[in-house]
Amino acid sequence: MNHLIKTALVTGASRGIGQAVAKRLAQDSFYVIVNYVHNPISANETIVYKANRYFVS
Fold first, then answer.
1. Which of 56, 49, 55, 54 is nearest to 15 (CA)?
2. What residues does each domain of the chain span?
3. Read out DSSP for 1-57?
4. Nearest by Cα to 25 from 56, 53, 57, 52
5. Residue ranges of the chain whose pLDDT lies below 50
6. How far does CA 5 lie from the centroid of its chain?
7. What crossing angle do the helices spanning 16-27 and 40-48 adopt, rounded to 10°?
C-alpha cells in the first residue's frame, strides 16, 4: 500500500503560469500550498478552484 502524500508548493500561484500549475496539480490530487505576494483575491480564487481537493494557504 502506498502512503505517499503528493504535495506541491507553487510560488506565484495567484495568476498566470503559477495559477495554472496549482490548478493542474489539484486536479492530479496533490495537496497544494499556494504562495503569493500582491494579489490575495486572485490567490483565493486559486485556492477555491477545486473545492473537493485539499489546499493549504
1. 49
2. 7-50
3. ---PPPEEEEETTTSHHHHHHHHHHHHTT-EEEEE-SS-HHHHHHHHHTTTTS-EE-
4. 53
5. 52, 55
6. 15
7. 20
